[in-house]
Amino acid sequence: MGEIEQRPTPGSRLGAPENSGISTLEHGQKPPPTPSGKLISIKIQMLDDTQEAFEVPQRAPGKVLLDAVCNHLNLVEGDYFGLEFPDHKKITVWLDLLKPIVKQIRRPKHVVVKFVVKFFPPDHAQLQEELTRYLFALQLKQDLAQGRLTCNDTSAALLISHIVQSEIGDFDEALDREHLAKNKYIPQQDALEDKIVEFHHNHIGQTPAESDFQLLEIARRLEMYGIRLHPAKDREGTKINLAVANTGILVFQGFTKINAFSWAKVRKLSFKRKRFLIKLRPDANSSYQDTLEFLMASRDFCKSFWKICVEHHAFFRLFEEPKPKPKPVLFSRGSSFRFSGRTQKQVLDYVKEGGHKKVRFERKHSKIHSIRSFASQPTEPNSEVPKQSPQSTGLTYGEGAEPPGGHSCQQGRELKVSAEEPGPQQSPSLQKSPLELSVNSPGGAAPANVTLSPNLSPDTKQASPLVSPLLNDQACPRTDDEEEVRRKRLPTDKAYFIAKEVSSTERTYLKDLEVITSWFQSTVNKEDSMPETLKSLIFPNFEPLHRFHTSFLKEIEQRLALWEGRSNAHMQGDYQRIGDVMLKNIQGMKPLAVHLWKHSEALEGLENEIRGSRRLENFCRDFELQKVCYLPLNTFLLRPLHRLMHYKQILERLCKHHPPNHADFRDCRAALAEITEMVAQLHGTMIKMENFQKLHELKKDLIGIDNLVIPGREFIRLGSLSKLSGKGLQQRMFFLFNDVLLYTSRGLTASNQFKVHGQLPLYGMTIEKSEDEWGVPHCLTLRGQRQSIIVAASSRSEMEKWVEDIQMAIDLAEKSSGPTPELLASSPPDNKSPDEGTAADQESEDDLSASRTSLERQAPHRGNTMVHVCWHRNTSVSMVDFSIAVENQLSGNLLRKFKNSNGWQKLWVVFTNFCLFFYKAHQDSHPLASLPLLGYSLTIPSESENIHKDYVFKLHFKSHVYYFRAESEYTFDRWMEVIRSATSSASRTHVLSHKESHVY
After folding, report:
1. How far apart are CA 809 and CA 713, in angstroms?
2. pLDDT below 70 — which residues of the chain?
3. Of residues 795, 821, 626, the one with CA closest to residue 710
4. How many other CB atoms sit within 10 Å of the CB of residue 447?
5. Sequence-distant (≥ 6) Cβ neighbours of residue 339 within 8 angstroms
6. Taking the complete model, does pTM exceed 0.90, yes or no?
């Protein structure tokens, strides 16, 4: 019997009884030295379907053979891979790295050992070498062809389209169909051919490295990614399949996952003959331990699955290689099997520390130039790969690298490796590596040109999952050198980076439109909660915009591809300009203006229907809880109006940049005139709708108010102030409108809303500074006709903002017809003067703790809106700030670095609504994390911080420090500009001087 058990004591073990066996929870040891003696030849089938023959000592352990293969490939991250072969019972098993090879492979001349991926990490961004990602892509290609990686037709077509892009380059329909006719990537491929071609058309300019990354990004989200099924039966005799993954043990019925047991829940794994046993940790609500039993076909099948479970647990859960216990003197019981090799953490640390050399490699079948792969030696004359002929199909590896483990070098020096011709396809010979491996190939000399793999992180895709708003430092790719070289290859003209901003912000805008046209519409169609009249008002007015801007984005990206020289569509002409594309499409927008006029009706219609239908209100609230709806739903309805302003600003920058005699100046100026006219026509509607949207958004955050949204009311400022009462200063949230001032408190309610405590009509109010009278810094006294309150701001600047805006609002109220109507459904609970404080005005313990809770805390519904950010950061924001924020939206790639980290991580970043939203790639439908910027300070790093990089800015709030790095001076200035608008409020000018007053 073999077993695996985790116990809290230092002497705990994983795999054998107490008195003997091998622990996978203790420190590791190196395998014995490679023995000398007779050599045996073993054929290895690589992931590109070529075969190589390796000669190793017959008594050598399996690790020697695996190290030889990794050294042969110059593979640094070889620990993710393994060797599998059919044993004498025709059961496919993994080569044990500690046992002698001759004891495992009984007839090596008649056995082909396969080199395959063994451990699939949860995030492919943890694979930090381009070669490793390429090999993973080859594995996925095999899994698709063999039916292991099952998925729907759309996913399959998308996966194949990325494979095709990496193999033949940019879209050419005739070439695509010819290539698909010759290469079958999946059973029943013919039915998917049109979809594959359609998807491939969207990948123009994508390099092979980027295609690999996108392939892995899509595949990792599939349920069958990295899954190898092991047939079994449960106690009732039902046929099931068991599998093991990085998270734990999975149970499938067919290809559907029906249960999962994470490593944290598993106390012990063992097997007895054909029975595989999982002992779970005691449930918190019960005193018994649950043991699950599964029946497998034979003891050998059972033991094989148990071994791979032990290895997965050790690789993904342990910090270092486990070490065996001393063998008992007399006898032992149980299996002595243990995991051998580096754990994932050790691999990540090794690669991060730079303990390797970057290597050249050539992609099999790839017939295009991988331009972004030439980073390490960009000036070498032979740094590009010519289109390969059918005869040149093997992987060729050049300069050697250090082996995956430090103890592998000596073993590598004692090996002889020869390449064996596998058939019609021949793998070219290899250059000698520093390890002095003897490589002999009957196929001839290696080609002169090879692709240089510089551990390049594909543009817009390389990132690690972000699991909190404070962006925890996960294991992530480091891209310092690669970014430097990539940056040097880009055009340097400022106009190029302005054009690139058009592309990046257009991507974000298109995603925002899809929230309405795709996500919201599909959800509405499933639920019968919206009247047909409202559906016909919203969706038919957004779908034409989505179609138009999809085409617009493709034109921009094609122009940028030509500008950068990425496209292989050999075309002639001056394409280093963007004004002609902008002019053409802005003129094409004019017929769509009729839909833009309808968006204000759509917003009003939606809010009116929500007010009259509890069912629709709940439906929209539930939709806002979805990750894809990263902003309030009604904000997306205003996006088309905001986008017009962005075009206007971009064209203004282009016209300012180009001299009048520039070829692009005339088109830019004409486009600017066209868009300025459209903005002027819709400006009044936009300001009216922004106020309407903001009032409805605030209404959702407040409890105890009936009629916040009334004609003529305008929002001015919201923020946190301390209110003085008989119990001292207590934090309150204040909301200032043009006719009334509300103050509220926040408690931990189910809806996480703010409860209205009182209202002060502004008609007849006076305001005076009273720091000396009350002995409280930054103190104000607000005297109304029926009530007076004393409040204190967090700083002098905050106090000045409130004084200016409240005085302005008082002046507006004086000019109105008179006192405002009552706002609250009932009298406020604490409408007494400061010296009459009662329990109704006291903060509960929950309120006090909530006021100190950071934004990291997982809050209930509406727990991270702008109101809550102001509460936590003890600051305020005005409608002028919101209007400026609408104009200052930006998106694109940034490199991010933590205060104590060593490298930079690439992220797709969207700035909107005073917040940075972080994505793994721009194609992602929802952000992984967000960073509200109110309260942060924006600076440039000092010399003492040892950044030593160009275009770096620093965000700092209390103990949280982040560095962000842009790709050019222009993008650096733009990010500084928009982020400064969020971290420092606009000048306190009169609101009505910034925009006209509009009522509805």
Report:
1. 11
2. 1-36, 283-289, 322-338, 354-360, 364-491, 566-574, 747-751, 817-864, 984-1000
3. 821
4. 16
5. 24, 310, 311, 313, 314, 315, 318, 321, 322
6. no
